[in-house]
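so my prof wants the structure for this chain in the tokens format not the other one, which i didnt know existed until like an hour ago. anyway here's the sequence
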Amino acid sequence: MAKNKTTVFYCQNCGYESSKWMGQCPGCKEWNTMVEEKAPAKSGAGGGAHRRESVIPTSLTAVDIQEEERMSTHMAELDRVLGGGIVPGSLTLVGGDPGIGKSTLLLQVCRYMAADGRKVLYISGEESLRQIKIRANRIGSFSDNLLLLCETSLETVEQTIRSQMPVITIIDSIQTMYHEEISSAPGSVSQVRESTNVLLQLAKGLNISVFIVGHVTKEGTVAGPRVLEHMVDTVLYFEGDRHASYRILRGVKNRFGSTNEIGVFEMKEEGLVEVRNASEFMLSGKPEGASGSVVSCSMEGTRPILLEIQALVCHSNFGIPRRQATGMDFNRLNLLMAVLEKRLGLQMSDCDAYVNLAGGMRIMEPAIDLGVSMAVVSSFKNRVIDDKTIAFGEIGLSGEVRGVSMAAQRVSEAAKLGFTTCILPEVNISQVRKTEGIRLIGVKSVRDAIDLL
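here's what i got, hopefully its the right format
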């Protein structure tokens, strides 16, 4: 007789399932991520499927759609990232480093929603009622509509949700929940996947908005299988150094809105406070009259954010020069420096180069290429760029400056903050209306922009 399979191996990164252990996961190609767990018990003999009632498909033209009624969190930055507010029946995953403010943000959401007369259930598997009360006292006063529960058993959590029928439920965190029918430890692939599936059924079946907190690994992703992100409706990530005062909430996935929006918060004693003017906040503390400092503009969804690009280029004392990029792609920096050496004849092969995006932002948009290049050359030549000058544009391998999207919004944001000169791609000049108080300089190539120095 064939031996019954009692254990299976799961990949902790992507959830790939295998009957034997492998050093490298075939799904995500990661090493040493396979863990052994007991195989889930299968239901009785097959044949039940054919006894199900037949399902009739629905024509697409017969589907009636209505605008989703959203609930405001009274936090404009959070509403922006969520796409306008909380959608009833949605399942949202909030991830971030330990101590960055996930629980604080959700407790503030509970406070505002409970003040509106909505019943809110906060379930914590990591903290006691006393610990939650201490944090709540720092935030402010709460109404009686907020209910607390310290529990890790998924069965008890499900019964409580069904009996209380709250409008919003907070699960802090998903790694602490366990299902008694699954023998693996809490936080394992099976437990996290089963817990999320149960909460998904509750959210859709009872029309309850559920927020779940997820721990992140050292690589910055949510601990557990990647299938967790596929199951939820919205994935929000907290970014920023927990030792600094700013916090950036970024939407990675959103079935009800844009995935490019960000919210900026500042951590204070009373909790997370919204930063309405993110550009001014990012430019605070900018040095005056320093070489290697240029202001550029990046678009986060529909929101232009001005940020300072700092560069330091100095001769290397070793045979191999060092390159370091903070806040941008390291390979992109090497590419831009190669373009400057080839197209402008600058000899920087024996120089160390360090580029930093001040404020802790991490930008992948190529529109900051022109700002990075001007900052590098400014430091290399020790030439100071005017503090009221802003530059943005994408640079190609031939040294050309390509157009960027939403140039008018970028120029308008720069004019609001008092910038008097804007260096931008020449192809975008026709798209920008003449703005009072700011001079537009169009450039075709990176050489044209560097000549302005």
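also thought this was worth mentioning. Residues 43-50 have pLDDT under 50 and may be disordered.
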